[in-house]
Write a structure and sequence with these properties.
Blueprint lengths: L19 E5 L2 E4 H16 L5 E5 L3 H13 L3 E4 L5 H7 L5 E4 L30 E6 L9 E5 H19 L3 E4 L6 H14 L3 E2 L6 H10 L2 E5 L1 H4 L7 H5 L3 E6 L6 H11 L4 E6 L3 E7 L15 E5 L4 E5 L9 E2 L2 E5 L5 E6 L3 E4 L2 E4 H9 L4 E9 L5 E8 L1 H10 L1 H13 L10 E4 L13 H9 L9 E7 L3 E7 L19 H15 L5 E10 L9 E8 L4 E8 L2 E11 L4
Parallel strand pairs: 1-9, 3-4, 3-5, 4-6, 8-10, 10-11, 11-12, 22-23
Antiparallel strand pairs: 1-2, 6-7, 12-13, 14-15, 15-16, 17-18, 19-20, 21-22, 24-25, 25-27, 26-29, 27-28, 28-29
Length: 575
C-alpha cells in the first residue's frame, strides 16, 4: 500500500470485481456491488438540477456509495451530525434536497436499483478544487458553524494518515464505534480505509461482544472515542482477541491516563489519540504508554506557532483550504521537540461524551421560553460528564413550576431543548433560583454555581445515556441507571432495582426525543418484564416507531439478557 493515496481517482483504480470492499452483517460487499451502488447514486443525481444535498445514512457502505456517487455527479454533500427534526429544518435553508435515512416529510432520495454494469463504469478523476463536503462544527443546531471542505483537503488528510500510521495497520479491517457523519468518522471509517484498500464495516459496533467476534475472525483496527473506551467491560476474551487488533484510535476529546492504561491492559496497546477539529482536520497525536500528560506531536506537514498572550496555538497545513493560519480554542503549553500539552477550552463549546455541545446555545434556547427569565449552564466533570442548568423562572414560569412540580417542569424544558441539542448535552440537574449568585465583582462564576450544588446533595432522576443508532423509524440508546438514582429508594432495601413504571417513563421520554409522536398516551400492549435491572448495569433500549399505527415497540436488553418489552399506543386529541 503506497503512502500517497489517490482518493480523487479511487473509483478509477483497476480492481477485481470480487475484491472485498466491506462487510455487512457478516457478508462481504464486493467491488462490483459497491461501484454499482455508487453508479446508481450518480445516475439518480445527474438528472437533477439541484446542487446541494444533505446526506444521512447509518450504513457506512451505502453512505460511501452515496458520497462518491454524488461527487461524481458534481453535487455538494452536507453532513449533519444527526437527523433530529430541528436539524433537518435548519438544513432546509442550505440544501436543495435530502439523501438517505431522513424522515419521509423531507422526501429523501435513494436509488431503488443496482447498476448492473457497475464494474465497467467510467467515473474519471474528481476535481481537487471541488467543494465536496460541508460539515458542522457543533453538536447543536443553534450554534452550528458550516465548514466547507475541498476534495484536495480530504485527499491530503488521507495521505497524511497513511504516511503516519499505514505501515502498522497493514490490511486490517476497520471497525468503529463512532459515526461517519462527523469529520473523524468520515476520515477514519470511510475515506482513509477505502482509499488504502482496507475493508470497512457497514454497521457501527454497539456491543463489545460484536467486536470480540470480529476480532476472532480477522485482523482489525478499532476506531473509537473516550465515551466508548471508558466503558470497556472486563472480559477475559479480550486477551485472545487483542492479538488480532492492530491499533486503537480515539478522538473527540483527551483520554484520561486511567482509561488509556485500562485499554492498554485489555487490548495490549494504548490507544492512539488524535487531536483536531472540523475546521483544521488532524493536528496532532499521542499515545499514553509512558505515563500521564504525554505531549501531543504534530504529524509531518502540520506546522504551528504559540501565542503566549492567550496561551493558544495557530496551525497551518494542507488540511486547510488556504495558507492562512487558524487559531485554536484550546489552551496549550509548548514542550520540547515541537510538541505541546493541551489545556481546557477557551470558548463555550464543551466536549461531552465525544460530542461538541454549545453551552451558549442551551442557554439561548432556555431563555427563548416565556417560562424562563435567565439561565446559566455548566458542565460537571467526573466519571460521567453531565450538564447542570440554573434557571430563574419568569412569573408565568414560576406559576407552572408550582402547579406541575419540579420534575414535570424540568421535563418541559428538556423537551424544549431536545430537538436542537444532542441527548448527551441535555441538562440532568436542574436548579430553580430567585437570582443568579454573584461575586464581589458582580459576576456569576463557575465556582459560585458549583457552590449551589455542593450545598444540596444531588439525586439524579435520569440515566446516563448514549445514542447508539438513529433512523426515521428506529433508535437505540445505551442507558445506565446510577447507583444514587432517586427511583431506587424503596425498591428494595439491600437489593435496589429499577421500577417498571420508571422504565416505561424513560421509553416514552426517549421516544419523544427521536420521533414525532401523537400527543396523547392511549395505553400499553403486550407489556412484559422478564429480568430485574440493578444499578450501574448498561442496558440497550431499542425503539421502533410505526407511524401508520401510532405505536411504539420497545425492547430493553443487556449482557444479562432480555429485561422488558412492549408496545405503547398514542393518539391525537383528548382521551
Amino acid at each position: 500500500m503506497p503512502d500517497a493515496l489517490d482518493l480523487l481517482g479511487w473509483l478509477t483504480l483497476p480492481r477485481a470485481p470480487s475484491d472485498t470492499v466491506a462487510w455487512r452483517h457478516g457478508g462481504a460487499v464486493c467491488w462490483h456491488e459497491f461501484i454499482g451502488r455508487a453508479g446508481a447514486w450518480r445516475s439518480l443525481l445527474q438528472g437533477t438540477p439541484e446542487q446541494g444535498f444533505a446526506l444521512y445514512h447509518t450504513d457506512a457502505v451505502e453512505f460511501a456509495a452515496a458520497l462518491f456517487g454524488a461527487w461524481h455527479a458534481g453535487k455538494i454533500i452536507y453532513l449533519p451530525g444527526d437527523s433530529l427534526p430541528n436539524t433537518c429544518a435548519t438544513l432546509r435553508r442550505a440544501v436543495d434536497g435530502y439523501l438517505g435515512e431522513f424522515s419521509p416529510q423531507w422526501e429523501p432520495k435513494i436509488p431503488a436499483f443496482q447498476n448492473s454494469n457497475g464494474d465497467a463504469m467510467e467515473f474519471g478523476r474528481l476535481d481537487p478544487e471541488f467543494v465536496g463536503v460541508v460539515l458542522y462544527t457543533s453538536g447543536t443546531t443553534g450554534a452550528a458553524q458550516a465548514i466547507s471542505k475541498k476534495l484536495t483537503q480530504l485527499s491530503a488528510e488521507v495521505s497524511t494518515l497513511e504516511k503516519q500510521f499505514g505501515a502498522s495497520l497493514g490490511a486490517a479491517d476497520i471497525i468503529s464505534t463512532v459515526s461517519h457523519q462527523h469529520i473523524y468518522g468520515l476520515l477514519f471509517n470511510v475515506l482513509w480505509p477505502l482509499a488504502a484498500g482496507r475493508a470497512i464495516h457497514a454497521q457501527n459496533f454497539s456491543y463489545y461482544e460484536e467486536l470480540e467476534r470480529t476480532l476472532a475472525e480477522r485482523e482489525a483496527v478499532l476506531v473509537s472515542s473516550p465515551a466508548h473506551l471508558k466503558r470497556l467491560p472486563e472480559n477475559p476474551a479480550w486477551t485472545r482477541a487483542a492479538t488480532r487488533l492492530r491499533a486503537v484510535f480515539s478522538s473527540g476529546g483527551p483520554l484520561s491516563f486511567d482509561v488509556a492504561s485500562e485499554c492498554a491492559r485489555l487490548f495490549g496497546r494504548a490507544p492512539i489519540e488524535v487531536y483536531g477539529s472540523s475546521e483544521t482536520g488532524g493536528i496532532a497525536y499521542r499515545q499514553q504508554d509512558k505515563g500521564p500528560d504525554q505531549p501531543w506531536t504534530p504529524p509531518p506537514g502540520v506546522t504551528w506557532h504559540f501565542d503566549p498572550r492567550e496561551e493558544v496555538i495557530e496551525v497551518s497545513s494542507a488540511h486547510l483550504p488556504d495558507k492562512n493560519w487558524v487559531r485554536l480554542a484550546d489552551h496549550v503549553e509548548p514542550t520540547e521537540n515541537n510538541r505541546f500539552i493541551l489545556g481546557g477550552r477557551v470558548d463555550q463549546i464543551a466536549k461531552i461524551e465525544g460530542k461538541r455541545i454549545s453551552l451558549q446555545a442551551i442557554e439561548s434556547l432556555l431563555t427563548s421560553s416565556p417560562w424562563v427569565r435567565a439561565a446559566r449552564v455548566v458542565v460537571l466533570e467526573g466519571r460521567r460528564q453531565q450538564v447542570a442548568a440554573f434557571v430563574i423562572p419568569s412569573e408565568p414560569g414560576r406559576g407552572e413550576l408550582i402547579a406541575k412540580g419540579k420534575r414535570a417542569f424540568s421535563g418541559l424544558l428538556r423537551n424544549l431543548l431536545s430537538e436542537s441539542i444532542e441527548a448527551v448535552g441535555l441538562p440532568r440537574i436542574w436548579r430553580y433560583l430567585d437570582a443568579l449568585p454573584v461575586n464581589a465583582q458582580g459576576k456569576t462564576t463557575h465556582a459560585e454555581l458549583l457552590a449551589l450544588l455542593a450545598s444540596e446533595p444531588v439525586r439524579p432522576t435520569q440515566p446516563q445515556e448514549r445514542l447508539i443508532e438513529k433512523s426515521p423509524e428506529r433508535a437505540v440508546f445505551e442507558l445506565t441507571a446510577p447507583r444514587n438514582l432517586l427511583y431506587f429508594d424503596g425498591h428494595f432495601s439491600g437489593r435496589p432495582i429499577l421500577p417498571g413504571v420508571v422504565q416505561v417513563d424513560w421509553v416514552i421520554a426517549y421516544a419523544r426525543q427521536c420521533f414525532d409522536l401523537p400527543p396523547v398516551f392511549r395505553g400499553l400492549h403486550a407489556l412484559k418484564f422478564m429480568r430485574l435491572i440493578p444499578p450501574e448495569t448498561p442496558i440497550m433500549l431499542e425503539l421502533v416507531h410505526e407511524a401508520a399505527k401510532s405505536s411504539l415497540a420497545f425492547k430493553i436488553t443487556s449482557r444479562l439478557g432480555a429485561h422488558a418489552k412492549g408496545r405503547v399506543i398514542f393518539g391525537a386529541g383528548n382521551v
